[in-house]
Amino acid sequence: MYVLPLILLYFGYNRLQGTAAIAKLESVLEKVSSCIVPVVVSLVGVLLVYYGATSLITA
Question: What is the pTM of this model?
Answer without folding.
Answer: 0.51
